Each structure stands twice: as structure tokens, then as C-alpha cells.
UniProtKB/TrEMBL annotation, chain A:
It comes from Streptomyces colonosanans. One of its GO terms (molecular function) is oxidoreductase activity. Keywords: Oxidoreductase. Pfam families: Aldedh (PF00171). InterPro entries: Ald_DH/histidinol_DH, Ald_DH_N, Aldehyde_DH_dom. Residues 24-255 form the Aldehyde dehydrogenase domain. SUPFAM superfamilies: ALDH-like. This is Aldehyde dehydrogenase.
TrEMBL record, chain B:
PANTHER family: ALDEHYDE DEHYDROGENASE-RELATED. The keyword Flavoprotein does not apply. One of its GO terms (molecular function) is oxidoreductase activity, acting on the aldehyde or oxo group of donors, NAD or NADP as acceptor. This is Betaine-aldehyde dehydrogenase. Belongs to the aldehyde dehydrogenase family. It comes from Streptomyces colonosanans. InterPro entries: Ald_DH/histidinol_DH (IPR016161), Ald_DH_C (IPR016163), Ald_DH_CS_CYS (IPR016160), Ald_DH_N (IPR016162), Aldehyde_DH_dom (IPR015590). Pfam families: Aldedh (PF00171). Residues 32-477 form the Aldehyde dehydrogenase domain. The keyword Aminoacyl-tRNA synthetase does not apply.
UniProtKB/TrEMBL annotation, chain C:
It comes from Streptomyces colonosanans. It catalyses: 2-deoxy-D-ribose 5-phosphate = D-glyceraldehyde 3-phosphate + acetaldehyde. One of its GO terms (cellular component) is cytoplasm. Pathway: Carbohydrate degradation; 2-deoxy-D-ribose 1-phosphate degradation; D-glyceraldehyde 3-phosphate and acetaldehyde from 2-deoxy-alpha-D-ribose 1-phosphate: step 2/2. This is Deoxyribose-phosphate aldolase.
Length: 295, 478, 319
């Protein structure tokens, strides 16, 4: 009987500041599957959408970077839990988006969920791996700790619409950064659906903002934006990457250049450390008293 | 200065250093002339005396040096780490042996007081080589995975404020990790790098591993832009840093930048006042304030402003400005006429914008480049002198009412290199340090450096860290 | 016994009006960062004092010595010899300044007074059951009165460290006030025994406590414990007298004592004075060295400056 029922189409929307706006431009573009079949209309984000997303990401940065690492880990794990319950939906989305068989798409989705779990576990460990005490030659206590860089623009990989996407977004937010994500241009739907999961996973609004549209168009204002602190160029081709890197120099953004990545392999910590700053704090120790060992 | 107890001149002997009338480029283990034979003069900023004539490297020379470094890279990177370590240990030791000579040389060429070159620069230079020497055969255990590989040829451009120390920060980790280097010292302070070339020869360092190319900005640009350079490391101004970032865009060159700053030194009402005053003085007058991490903005809690400023002014009257070779000199010369002009212009801007200028009574020598220790009160965030890096002995004093306001003002800058916190309350130190967006935070101290301690900035103060285990990353393919 | 009588009317007179106001005041003084204080003292220690400056400093240092003997074995003969040396530190060179004072136990004051008569050299006497100070107040006061009666120009008292460390500041204060009164015209030096107070915060509090109670001098140590005068604790006390004068208009002297043995050390202390309290303190009315062996080293250095040759212990007197 359901065959006879007319299905309800979904209006795909951006995910910005915890809300689901349409593009400020009022424009959409057609998203097709690998065979050219129409799947949906996706919002065609404008420069102003990019700007709004940066404002949302900046606003969320204080809370998110100030949350305990344990709390961030819990929330990242919650995202995995939410995805687990919506596996079928994402298998369908990924199969359509990337032209994969159902089993291959299922493997991608499983790996993606596991990636959230991997990074959920990293939130409260990375500081111990890359930070530590420094044995300075003097009466000082000296400690280096990693801190998030700030607002990171992430150009999601063009090919791997879901596993690749999460592989670049999760490490950015695991350490307390907030992200403005530009979804795969030709396969943005999994990213837009991910927004719906993030919205229901206790992730504060604005920590991840998802834009769809023409990567080059959205990336240019982001790369030049003075309130963006870093940019991951995973989804840019070499020509675009160079242009963006030049624009990024205006406020000395940290730039992660595009490089070949096997997203099915277990990641290292490079994507975590790419968007971390090291803060070193000194404090005098000295002796217990004036008659102490310093004489 | 008290007149009853006049300190007689106590000059360090200049005879410990023998400066040749001319120096060449150091390429592939030999001193050579520049391809076009061009030279430039280096002068002593405290007297304007010409110290020597130095070859000025051209793009052709850069190419020659990069080729020499490339060739040397094959064997140098293939050496067992323990052997590279021994070369670096040798260098560290020779620097210690020759430290008095190098301190006097640096004081002559840079203008900074001998007290600083003797007690800060040179000990830190030797310590830096000693520290990274020890890493050379332990890279497998440095946390970057097994057998991390060097990048290749490192092009390094360093500033004039700590000529030999910045050389050490660049060369020591590069060599320890198996890279070879082409280094351009600043045009106003090339001599200590050329003496370092001699130290490399004494240490028996294989030729081509270290190449020194004195020159101006165009030499640096040629080096940074050279296609066969794998790694670019720069310390200097934010403007040049941005230019370099654009130059290396689209390449595979790894880049680290250590740039400008406008450090906030925050003094709370419960600070250890006498030590805070010392910290403020060290923060802005160490090396005539020509320090990227200088505490150039004093943020003082409004409730203790008067008493703190009174103490500070009294302390400033005891600063001794003059002959940098005199062992009692606290404030030396500004490094160049150009830098002096910049400081002068910014200070005038401060006055023009309505800030109140004060300097202790202080007689400036008639020749050389000098600027009296200066502080500005009634400064707000909107004043140019509270925003632009002055890179001179000029302190801008601002006030705050609450810790939140202190943090907000401290962070309200495009820079993020250093900050200071003065309070006797432990939890406040930790809370404020946590909120400051700066790479180095000194609490109840200032301007402390150590080879084991990572140094570098947030935001437009650059990226990458120098020092410590962190400092290895910039020179490894990880 | 007078209680809590204000030493003099000044801006801080009310501070000692009650135990609680005194405590609040002392605990409200700015803290001292150990590392920063010691670093500043060490940095001033690198000043290079040469030629004319050195000659000036050595003569000044000689003139600031409280030439001291505080032994159980002290005899009139020993004290007479010391007095003679104070008046003529270098018998070969009569241009040598006299020391500031000789410092002896109360029972030796009369002998010392006679030995330095007419020279301008003062006689200082330790009192108040030096060095431990662990007797009843009336015994301490009797000790002081005896010394003053015997002609002491200056009294070096010890504070009750036990009371101080127990937080009974008013007891310490009252004792100083009482001793000050017993001193009459004699100038009072208040010894904190900084080595026993242990922390720099305590030394700063003790300095202010002593000055509030009317000390003419604040003095580091008895010379009888492990840690005596150091550049850092003296620097801290110089900051205290500087700040006290700024607030009250009253100038107080400083006397580091114990452990200062070489001219080089003495000159470092003078640099501390010069660059902390300032030139107003570069006078033996306001700064003293409590020392014994220091004088001979100063004299040898003085001879070296005069002749260009290094001197030796045979060329200075052993008294």
C-alpha cells in the first residue's frame, strides 16, 4: 500500500548557530546522484551565509572551548549514539550521494560512526600527549598546554561526503574549536543531514555550522575573514587551495593544505594538532622560605 | 641616579674580539664574495662606527647556498643521530668557550648592554645547542612516531634583536633533526652569524650543512622563494611574515613564523608590588624593548594605579643608559637609525593622540641611536600606542577595574604572543592564564626563556613553536 | 609598663591601636615573591664598582661598620683592643675613616666607651637578653637600662620571634615600644633574626611592625643563627624603610648583620642601598654593617687601591 503513497520530500537547509535557515540568498542548486538523477535542491550559500556562520561559530567558541574535555567527549560520543539510531537513513543518503552499493555505503556509515567514537575518546587525552611540564633551568614551574585555535573553516572533502566530512570536522571540534563547514559541493546532503543529528546531540548551537553551495564561492570569504583563525583546505583543488592560502595570510590563519588521505584508515593525531595552539605558563617556585636552599 | 655614589666607568674590554675589516658569505664551508661583489657596512649603533664590510648575497648566491645545503643534506641526514648530536655538543661547548668574545661582539653590532649579552643571550645560545644536541639521537622517542624524517633544506631568516640567540633557535633544532640550513641574518647585525660560521669550522661541521648569507630583505625573499627549499622559518615583523606566508602558499614548504606582539602585563591590586615593578621594567626595557614578547602594555588595576606608577617612575630613575659595553649599563642603544625613527614617530603619535608622556631625567649620548625609557599614561585601547607594536623602550599604561575587563583588554589585539599576570592569588593566576590568548604567559615573572620551554604565538603573532620537544616538529616531516 | 603607646604621630599612628588593626595592617602589606626578590638582589650584585667608585664605597663601608664582639669570652682587654681598632682601623694610614660603632654586650659598654672616648665612634650594646630574648620583659628592660646607664649610644634589641611566629604581633609591638622608652636618647636597633622568621612575607611584616613601634634601625640578625644578612633580605628591608618614609616622613636605618665578610659583599650591599632606598641612606647614620672580620678585608682592599699591590693579613691588625 505504501507504494501508492506519495512521499514527503525534505527541504534541505543549512545548519547555522543551532538553527536551520534557508540560504540568505534564497537560492538553491540541484543535487543529483551519480547517475545524474535529481535528488534534492540544496541551499546555495552566499557570502552572507558564510559571515553569519562565522559569527555563530565565534559566539559558540567561548562556551565550547571552556567546556571540560570530558564533557566534549561525552557530546561527541552522543553524536555517535544518535547516528547509530539513524544508520539506515545515512546509508541511503551516502549510497545516493556517492553512487555506492548499499553494503559499501553501510560500511562508510559504520566507519563514520566509529570515527566519532575515536575522537570522543581523544578529547581528554590529547593535552597529555602534546602538553607537559618543561624542566627549565631555574626556579620556575613551567607547563605547556594545548588550546584550541578558535574558529576553523573546514572545506570538507569533495569525494567522501560523509566519512571524509566527519574525519575533518570531528578533530576540529574535539579540541574545542568551532567550525564553519563547507559541505562537498556535489554531494552536500549527508552533511546537511548531519546537522540534524548534531542539533539533537547536546552539541551547543554554533559549534558546527554547515553550509552547502559552491565551495570556491563560500571558501573565498572564509579564507579572507579576519575572525576566522584557521582553515582546512581538504576540499579544495590545488589552484583554489593556493588562492585560499594566499588570502589566509592576511591574518595568518593556520592552514592545513590538501593532501591525499585514506579516510578508511585509522587517523593519527595530525588533524587534532593542526588546530591547536601551545600555551606555556611560567610561575616562580623558589624555596620555601628566606632561609631555604637558595642560599 | 644618586649623585653621592657615582659608578665609575666599568667597560668590558673590547680587545677580546677581533673583527676583520671585511667578511664574505659562508657557503659550502668557505667564505666567498657575493656574485656581484656587492658589500654593505655594519655599524655599531651606539657610536655609528663602521665595524666591518660584509658581502651582500644575491639571488645567485642564494641558489649556490641552497645547492650546497641540498648536497650536504644527503650525508648529513644519513648520519646516525648520535653523530649529529656530537657536532652540536661541540658547537655548544665552543660557544661557551668563546662566550665573552661573542658577547662583546654582539653588544658592538647590536647596541644592547653587555650585561644582557653576557648574562642572557650567550648562556641561552649555548644552552639551546646543548638541549637540541641531546634530541638528535632520540627522535624516535619524541612522540612523532618511529623514525621521523627531516624535511631537507631549511631557509631561515632571523631578526636583529637577538642575533645569535635567534640563530640558535633556528639552527639547533634544524641540524638535530637532520636538516641542512641556509640562514640570513639581519642586515644590521650580521657579524655574530659570521663568527658562528667560524665556530662551525672549528667544530668540524661538514661543509654545506650550515650556510650563512648576509643581506637585506631581497636576499631573504630569494631564500624563502627558492623552489628547492623545503622549510621556511622566519622571525621578524608581522608584515613580512604575511608576505612570506603568501610566498609559500601552494607549495609543500613547511612554514613557521614568530612575529610581532603587544604583550599585556596585568597587575592586580594584590600583586607583589616590588617584584611587579621589576617585572614591568624587565618586560619593556629588556633589550631596549626591542623584543617581540615585550610587555608593552601595562594593564594596572585602577585602585593601585597611583602607587604603582609612583614606584615604577622611581625605579625608572635608577636605570642607567649609555655605553653598552659598560657593565653597569641597563639601557643600550636602539639598533638602527630606521628603528629609532619608527619609535620616535610612534611616541610622537602617542602624544598627539593625547596620552601623557613621561621619561626619567636621562642624558642621551650625542652619537649613535638612543631613546630614553618612556612611559605613557592615560592610554586607552583606542590609542595607536596601545595597538601597534613599537619595538622600543616605550610602555603604554592602561587601567582596568575587574579581572574580566583585564582579560578582555589583554586579548583585544591582533597579536597573541605573550602576557604577564601579577597577583598573589593562585586561583586568579590560573583563571586568567587560562583565558589569555597568548602563547607564553608569565605569572609573577616576565621575559623568561629556556631551551626546554616552547615559545611562539597565537593569532597574528605567528604559528609554530620554538624550544622544547614542540620545537622539533617544525623540522620533521610529521 | 606602657601599652601600645604610639611611637610618633604620623599617617599610620592608628594602625597599632588594637591587636586586630595591627594584624590587618601587617597582613595587608603586599606579598613578596621569593624568586623575583632574589633575582633583583642578584642582578644588583652584578654591578661593577671600579676605581673611584670603589674607593668611595670602601671608605663608606668602613665608616658604616659596627665593629662587633659578642662572645662569652669577651674581656676588657679584648674590648679595649676592638675600640682602638674602631678609632684607628689602619694604623699605617690615618686617613682611614673610623668605624661607626663598636658593638658589645651591656657589661662591656663602660670599657668600650672609654676606649673610643673623644673619637666620635659610638658604642652600641646588644640588650634584651640577646640573642634568644627569652626572658621576662622587666629583665629585658633592666638589661637595656644597664647598657644605657653605662653610656651606650645605641641599643640593639631582639624581638620575641616566638610571639611573632605565633601571630601575637601586639606583644612584639609593645615590647619594642617599652624598650624604646627605656632607651631614652639612645638609638634603637630592632633585630628580627630574619633566619628564624623564615619567609620574606614575615620579614616585610616584621620590618613594618618594628618601624611602627619606633625603631630607629631595623636589623636583620644576631649573627648567631645559620642564616644571617643576605642581599635579598636586606633589599627587602630597604624597600620597607623607603616605603615607610614615603608614607610617614620618618626615616629609619637598616643594618644587615652576620655573614658579610668581604669588601665585594659590602660593596654589593651599598649598591642595594643606593638603588633601592637611595642616597639619603648612604651615610652611617642610616646604614650599618654588623660585622667583625669584614673590616680587615675592607682595609686590605683600601691598601690595594692606594698602592696598587695586593695586601695580606699580616698588614692589618688582628684585633
Amino acid at each position: 500500500m505504501s507504494d501508492e503513497r506519495l512521499s514527503v520530500f525534505k527541504t534541505y537547509k543549512l545548519y547555522v548557530g543551532g538553527k536551520f535557515p534557508r540560504s540568505e540568498s534564497g537560492r538553491v542548486y540541484e543535487v543529483t546522484d551519480s547517475k545524474g538523477q535529481w535528488l534534492a535542491n540544496a541551499p546555495l550559500s552566499s557570502r552572507k551565509d558564510a559571515r553569519d556562520a562565522v559569527v555563530a561559530a565565534r559566539k559558540a567558541f567561548g562556551t565550547w572551548s571552556g567546556a571540560t574535555a570530558y564533557n566534549r567527549g561525552q557530546i561527541l560520543y552522543r553524536i555517535a549514539e544518535m547516528l547509530e539510531g539513524r544508520r539506515d537513513q545515512f546509508v541511503r543518503e551516502v549510497a545516493d550521494a556517492e553512487g555506492l552499493s548499499k553494503s559499501k555505503a553501510a560500511a562508510q556509515v559504520a566507519a563514520t560512526i566509529d570515527r566519532w567514537v575515536w575522537y570522543a575518546g581523544w578529547t581528554d587525552k590529547i593535552a597529555q600527549v602534546v602538553g607537559g611540564g618543561n624542566p627549565v633551568a631555574g626556579p620556575f614551574f613551567n607547563l605547556s598546554t594545548p588550546e584550541p585555535t578558535g574558529v576553523v573553516a573546514v572545506l570538507a572533502p569533495q569525494e567522501s561526503s560523509f566519512l571524509g566530512l566527519v574525519s575533518v570536522v570531528a578533530p576540529v571540534i574535539a579540541t574545542g574549536n568551532t567550525a564553519v563547514v563547507v559541505a562537498s559541493e556535489k554531494a552536500p546532503l549527508p552533511a546537511l543531514c548531519l546537522g540534524e543529528v548534531l542539533a539533537t546531540s547536546d552539541l551547543p548551537g554554533g559549534v558546527v555550522n554547515v553550509l552547502s553551495g559552491r565551495t570556491a564561492e563560500i571558501a573565498a570569504p572564509l579564507a579572507a575573514h579576519q575572525d576566522v583563525n584557521a582553515i582546512d583546505l581538504a576540499g579544495a583543488d590545488d589552484v583554489l587551495a593556493k588562492e585560499l592560502e594566499i588570502a589566509a595570510a592576511d591574518n595568518l590563519k593556520r592552514v592545513l593544505r590538501p593532501q591525499p588521505v585514506d579516510y578508511t584508515a585509522t587517523p593519527g593525531i595530525e588533524r587534532l594538532t593542526a588546530f591547536l595552539e601551545t600555551k606555556t605558563v611560567w610561575h616562580p617556585t623558589g624555596s620555601l622560605g628566606a632561609s631555604g636552599s637558595s642560599y | 641616579m644618586a649623585s653621592a655614589f657615582e659608578y665609575a666607568p666599568a667597560p668590558e674590554s673590547r680587545s677580546v674580539v677581533d673583527i676583520a675589516p671585511s667578511y664574505g658569505l659562508f657557503i659550502d664551508g668557505e667564505f666567498t664574495e657575493a656574485a656581484d661583489g656587492k658589500v654593505f657596512k655594519t655599524v655599531s649603533p651606539s657610536t655609528e662606527e663602521v665595524l666591518s664590510e660584509v658581502a651582500q648575497a644575491t639571488a645567485e648566491d642564494v641558489d649556490r647556498a641552497v645547492k650546497a645545503a641540498r648536497k650536504a643534506f644527503e650525508t648529513w641526514s644519513a648520519l646516525p643521530g648520535s653523530e649529529r648530536a656530537k657536532y652540536l655538543f661541540r658547537i655548544a661547548r665552543i660557544i661557551q668557550e668563546r662566550s665573552r668574545e661573542l658577547a662583546v661582539l654582539e653588544t658592538l653590532d647590536n647596541g644592547k648592554p653587555i650585561k644582557e649579552t653576557r648574562d642572557a643571550d650567550l648562556p641561552l645560545v649555548a644552552a639551546h645547542f646543548f638541549y637540541y644536541a641531546g634530541w638528535a639521537d632520540k627522535l624516535d622517542h619524541a612522540g612523532f612516531g618511529p623514525n621521523p624524517r627531516p624535511l631537507g633544506v631549511a631557509g631561515q631568516v632571523i631578526p636583529w634583536n637577538f642575533p645569535l640567540l635567534m640563530l640558535a633557535w633556528k639552527i639547533a633544532p634544524a641540524l638535530a633533526t637532520g636538516n641542512t640550513v641556509v640562514l640570513k641574518p639581519a642586515e644590521t647585525t650580521p657579524l655574530s652569524a659570521l663568527f658562528f660560521a667560524d665556530i662551525c669550522r672549528q667544530a668540524g661541521l661538514p661543509k654545506g650543512v650550515v650556510n650563512i648569507l648576509p643581506g637585506y630583505g631581497d636576499t631573504g625573499a630569494a631564500l624563502v622563494g627558492h623552489p628547492d627549499v623545503n622549510k621556511v622559518a622566519f622571525t621578524g615583523s608581522t608584515a613580512v611574515g604575511k608576505e612570506i606566508a603568501r610566498t609559500v602558499a601552494g607549495t609543500q614548504k613547511k612554514l613557521t613564523l614568530e612575529l610581532g606582539g603587544k604583550g599585556a602585563n596585568i597587575v592586580f591590586d594584590d600583586a607583589p608590588i616590588d617584584q611587579a615593578v621589576e617585572g614591568i621594567v624587565t618586560g619593556i626595557f629588556f633589550n631596549q624593548g626591542q623584543v617581540c614578547c615585550a610587555g608593552s602594555r601595562l594593564l594596572v588595576q585602577e585602585s593601585i594605579q597611583d602607587e604603582l606608577l609612583e614606584s615604577l617612575k622611581r625605579r625608572l630613575t635608577t636605570l642607567r643608559l649609555g655605553d653598552p659595553l659598560d657593565k653597569n649599563t641597563d639601557i643600550g642603544a636602539i639598533n638602527s637609525a630606521e628603528q629609532l625613527a619608527r619609535i620616535t614617530a610612534l611616541a610622537e603619535r602617542g602624544e598627539a593622540e593625547g596620552a601623557e608622556r613621561w621619561s626619567p631625567a636621562c642624558e642621551l649620548p650625542t652619537s649613535g641611536y638612543w631613546f630614553a625609557p618612556t612611559l605613557f599614561t592615560n592610554v586607552t585601547q583606542a590609542h595607536t600606542i596601545a595597538r601597534d607594536e613599537i619595538f622600543g623602550p616605550v610602555l603604554s599604561v592602561l587601567t582596568f577595574r575587574t579581572p574580566e575587563e583585564a582579560v578582555a583588554k589583554a586579548n583585544n589585539t591582533q597579536y597573541g604572543l605573550s602576557a604577564g599576570i601579577w597577583t598573589e592569588k593562585g586561583s586568579r593566576i590560573l583563571a586568567v592564564a587560562n583565558k589569555l590568548r597568548a602563547g607564553v604567559v608569565w605569572s609573577n615573572t616576565f621575559n623568561k626563556f629556556d631551551p626546554t620551554s616552547p615559545f611562539g604565538g597565537y593569532k597574528e603573532s605567528g604559528f609554530g613553536r620554538e624550544g622544547g620537544r614542540h620545537g622539533l616538529e617544525a623540522y620533521l616531516d610529521v | 609598663m606602657p601599652t601600645s603607646a604610639p611611637a610618633a604621630a604620623h599617617a599610620l599612628t592608628d594602625v597599632a591601636s588594637s591587636d586586630s588593626t595591627l594584624r590587618r595592617f601587617l597582613h595587608g602589606l603586599p606579598g613578596v615573591d621569593t624568586v623575583g626578590l632574589e633575582a633583583r638582589a642578584a642582578a644588583l650584585g652584578t654591578r661593577s664598582i671600579k676605581t673611584t667608585a670603589k674607593a668611595y664605597a670602601i671608605d663608606l663601608a668602613i665608616s658604616m661598620v659596627d665593629l662587633t664582639t659578642l662572645e662569652g669570652a669577651d674581656t676588657p682587654g679584648k674590648v679595649r683592643a676592638l675600640g682602638t681598632k674602631a678609632v684607628h682601623p689602619d694604623p699605617t694610614d690615618r686617613t682611614t675613616p673610623t668605624t661607626a660603632a663598636v658593638c658589645v654586650y651591656p657589661d662591656m659598654v663602660a670599657v668600650a666607651k672609654e676606649a673610643v672616648a673623644g673619637s666620635g665612634v659610638k658604642v652600641a650594646s646588644v640588650a634584651t637578653a640577646f640573642p634568644a630574648g627569652r626572658v621576662a620583659l622587666d629583665v629585658k628592660l633592666a638589661d637595656v637600662r644597664e647598657a644605657v646607664a653605662a653610656g651606650a649610644d645605641e641599643i640593639d634589641m631582639v624581638i620575641d620571634r616566638g610571639a611573632f611566629l605565633a601571630g601575637r604581633y601586639m606583644k612584639v609591638y609593645d615590647e619594642i615600644v617599652a624598650v624604646k622608652e627605656a632607651c631614652g636618647a639612645a638609638r634603637l636597633k630592632v633585630i628580627f633574626e630574619t633566619g628564624e622568621l623564615s619567609t620574606y612575607d614575615n620579614i616585610r611584616r616584621a620590618s613594618w611592625l618594628g618601624m611602627l613601634a619606633g625603631a630607629d634601625f631595623i636589623k636583620t640578625s644576631t649573627g648567631k643563627v645559620a642564616v644571617n644578612a643576605t642581599p635579598a633580605n636586606t633589599l627587602l628591608m630597604l624597600e620597607a624603610v623607603r616605603d615607610f618614609r614615603a608614607q610617614t616622613g620618618i626615616q629609619v636605618g637598616v643594618k644587615p648583620a652576620g655573614g658579610i665578610r668581604t669588601s665585594k659583599d659590602a660593596v654589593k650591599f651599598l649598591v642595594l642601598v643606593n638603588e633601592t632606598a637611595g642616597e639619603d641612606w648612604l651615610d652611617n647614620h642610616w646604614f650599618r654593617f654588623g660585622a667583625s672580620s669584614l673590616l680587615n678585608d675592607l682595609l686590605m682592599q683600601r691598601q690595594k687601591l692606594a698602592t696598587g699591590r695586593y695586601s695580606g693579613p699580616d698588614y692589618v691588625t688582628v684585633d
